[in-house]
Amino acid sequence: MTDRHVALVGNPNSGKTTLFNRLTGANHYVGNWAGVTVEKKEGFTTYKGHRLHIIDLPGKYSLSAYSLEEKIARDYLLEEKPEVVINLVPAANLERNLYLTLQLIEMELPVILAVNMIDELEQKGLKIDFEALQEALGIRVVPISSARNQGIDTLLDEVIQFEPYPEFRQFTYSEVVEKALDQLGDEPRWQRIKMLEKDLEIPPEHPAEDYLLEETVIKERYEIINRLLEKVIFREKSYRSPSDAIDKVLLNKYLGLPIFALVMALVFYMTFSIGNIFVDILDEFFSVTLSGGVAGLFERLDVSPWLLSLVSDGIIGGVGGVLTFLPNIAILFVFISLLEDSGYMGRAAYLMDKWMQKVGLNGKFFIPMLLGFGCNVPAIMSTRTLENPKDRLVAILINPFMSCGARFPVYVLFASVFFAGYEFMVVLSLYLLGILVAVSVAYLFRKTILKGEESFLVLEIPDYRIPRMRNLVLHVWERVKDYLVKAGTVIFAASIILWFLLNYNFTGGVALVDSFGAMIGRAIAPVFSLAGFGNWQSALSLLSGIFAKEIVVSNTAIIYGLGEAASLRDLGGALAANFTPLSAYAFLVFVLLYTPCVAVIGVIKRETNSWFWMFFSLGYQLVIAFALSAAVYQLGSLFAG
């Protein structure tokens, strides 16, 4: 069996990840917006006795390394030298996508052009002469639809029997460019072109000012593409994209943002309306059926009381307390995935651009912020798409303010207890507050410690499309699986540890108020008095939430479950005895803004490559969380009289 390394290369949102999943059987998330892949992914497939090592490289518009993910892709192609490079281009958007293709050809890489999404050609009234395109480019061209599994076997046949095209095409530029190339020494032609594009350093013996022809090279490359396309692509009927008509409303400068806010409010409303039906069922199962069944079984087996308490109060109370809110999590991500796959979520960056420009940012900052609604870890990694290093650092530092899915169960618990009937409005306010704080802090950083040149938004807006069921199921399953895995590992372990802390001190088994946990909570509780939740139970839950935000829910369930509480209704009564609606909202503000979980802390260190920025991030977020939660409580108390 022979091995062959195959790189997948293409513009953002060209279908690379869909093809990667199709070839390798992987289930990586596919989004209808640019920037889903920000690091290379690897997988394997076997085809007709050949073992193919598939590498999905981050999407890029050119081989000029303006951003980190573009540098990752370019360096891989230059240093690893894959045996075959599959360049994916959307069939209906060849003009922009062939720019990268020409660069790959100029570098004399072993390229196969996979013209993707051919199923959209007829709908858009287009026809492509693929044989003429192959002749014009001098590389193999294979029409495919990775989403519909069309042409994949033909593509794999070309990969395993790859040979360079008989007639290599060398694209010729204008006389002034060719003269400049001739005078740049004996380096390979592609390197001399990269020198003109200012992507490789011009040798010191050459006067740089004579050869800085980057704009000329770009302009002439597009002229080559346009001349080529005139011969290979034909319009058979007129076509106007429905996306244009929809965007006249959804991207309207007056209606766009209110509609976006209304859509998000509807998402949260449906999440609670539908989710709470299943929450009640799960609550009944964990607090009555399972807990009661375990208690009865342990009594018949004459199991020690401490073990019964550990399993019933600690494990079932903690893990079950988190799993009870799984329906809300799943339903939230169903709606988020629908918005992303339809193409609407990618337009949010455009909607926000005008307002973010006012604070020295641009809409591209908003893409990692939106990803943060799912999980801050991949969201912070997605900042690699930002070209300016200072912009990227700002985006990393503000991302933890975006309300990730792990905080959502905390919101559900407290909103259901203290704001019944208005839960969706409370949760929406927290999400909007996170955005407001993030943008405000970014503005402050850009004006002080991270000053830099103003950047502008260049964004690819994809067409709207009907969400694919496979993408929806995979996306939601990945989130649900992560939630279940965390419940079975981190939260399971934390529940056992907390049960021990709440049942013992130096003298052995003790009452709850004399336990290690109560001691720790009382030691730090006074710090939270200004914010209205200066009780030891809240302090202990928040402290443990640094490991995973879901633990705030599990610990709350365990702490109050060790008393009289068992079900969510009883837990709500226990919470109502320790919080008012105002202090509960201040508590949620603190949960929204304070120190992120250890996974996010780790990725901040990795992406900034700096201990300083990691600790700076932890410190300033904690200060802001204290300040705003205290402000909410104190001002609320003042107005409430």
Main β sheet profile: 6 strands, mixed
Task: Kindly report the oligomeric state of this protein.
Answer: single chain
Tell me the domain tally: 2
Query: What is the structural class?
Result: alpha/beta
Helix count, DSSP H or I runs of 4 or more residues:
27
Proportion of residues in extended strands = 5-15%
Question: Unreliable segments (pLDDT under 50, ≥5 consecutive)?
Answer: 29-37, 204-211
The chain-level mean pLDDT equals: 84
Total strands: 10
Instruction: Enumerate the strands of the largest sheet in spatial order, edge to edge or round the barrel.
Output: 2-3-1-4-5-7
Morphology call: elongated
Topology:
Elements: E1 2-10, H1 16-24, E2 41-47, E3 50-56, H2 68-79, E4 84-90, H3 94-106, E5 111-116, E6 126-128, H4 130-137, E7 140-143, H5 152-160, H6 175-182, H7 189-196, H8 214-232, E8 233-235, H9 242-250, H10 256-300, H11 305-323, H12 326-342, H13 348-357, H14 366-371, H15 376-381, H16 389-398, H17 408-418, H18 423-447, H19 469-488, H20 490-503, E9 504-505, E10 508-509, H21 516-524, H22 536-544, H23 550-561, H24 568-578, H25 581-593, H26 598-608, H27 611-640
Parallel strand pairs: 1-3, 1-4, 4-5, 5-7
Antiparallel strand pairs: 2-3, 6-8, 9-10
Describe the structure.
The protein is α/β, with parallel strands linked by helices and 641 residues long. The chain folds into two domains: 239 residues, P-loop containing nucleotide triphosphate hydrolases (Rossmann fold, 3-Layer(aba) Sandwich), CATH 3.40.50.300; 369 residues, no CATH class. It is built from 27 helices and ten strands. The strands form three sheets. It has a six-stranded mixed sheet with strand order 2-3-1-4-5-7, with helices on both faces. It is elongated.
